[in-house]
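Memo to structure team: turn this sequence into structure tokens by end of day. - J.P.
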Amino acid sequence: MQLQPNYIVDNHNQKIAVQLDIKTYEKITETLENYALFKFMDENQDDEKLSLKDAKAYYASIKKDS
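Reply from structure team:
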């Protein structure tokens, strides 16, 4: 993934925001969500374990609710 950000600057030429194309933004959010799911599952190993298929289905249902 090649990042090509567009920076938004203030009157003093200080960067205050960034624009990304939607495809890059969606890839970044998907990666963060997957990492968060992994960390959650890793930290809760002693709890009931789900198969990968069940975990993905559970995670998909959570995403639909939000």
